[in-house]
Amino acid sequence: MNQKILPASSNMKEFEQFLESPFEIGVMLEVHIAQLKNINAMAKRYGKKMIYHVDMIQGLKSDDYSTEYLCQEYKPYGLISTKSSVILKAKQKGVLAVQRVFLIDSHALEKSYKLIEKTRPDYIEVLPGAMPWMIKEVKERVNIPIFAGGLIRTANEVKNALDAGAAAITTSKRGLWEITQFQDSDT
Asked: Which segments within 63-108 are labelled E, that is strand?
């Protein structure tokens, strides 16, 4: 993936800003199921690829049935979830599967490693992403590309995450969407 910053939208105003941006791929966080049809149509009209965070779609249970529904009805570019059933079904449907893991403590990290071994997602999103030493450790341990998300607030923190081995960062911080120095780089 050449895109180093993945804009994440939490509402329609942010989504509309993403549509006007030069980015091809975006993440939709909190959304009501009734908005998905409109969001999907708008993204298609603007030539954008959407990654939906299944766990944050209001009115939809995040399980393999809802994943199958999303894949068939909306044909997303990718899906993010903390749930293994969602990741496995997304992979089965040929959709980019992003396993979200929280770097809370050593116990949670070990539990995440076991889950990742089972699901073998296409990408892992680690939160918080503002811990470059952990990005490096996780990447070395699992050998799966990483998205860094959460608490990345400055261009320097973006650089640190990418330098530590993140393939991209996911961010809802609008100011970071303006950074162009990392696009199409091999950082």
From this structure: 78-81, 96-102
Closest CA to 135 of 165, 102, 98, 171: 165
- Note the Cα 52 to chain centre separation in Å: 8
Mind listing the pLDDT tens digit for each residue in 48-103?
999 999 999 999 999 999 999 999 999 999 999 999 999 999 999 999 999 999 99
| Sequence-separated (6 or more) residues with CB below 8 Å from residue 183 | 2, 3, 4, 5, 22
3-state secondary structure of 8: strand
CA 99 to chain centre: 8
**Cα separation, 86 vs 152, whole angstroms:** 26
The two tokens of residue 75 are 């044909």
pLDDT band at 22 (very low <50, low <70, confident <90, very high): very high
Q: Which residue, among 104, 103, 95, has the nearest Cα to 123 in the 3D structure? A: 95
In angstroms, the CA 17 to CA 140 distance is: 35
pTM > 0.90: yes or no: yes
Query: What residue has token string 């180093």?
Result: 4
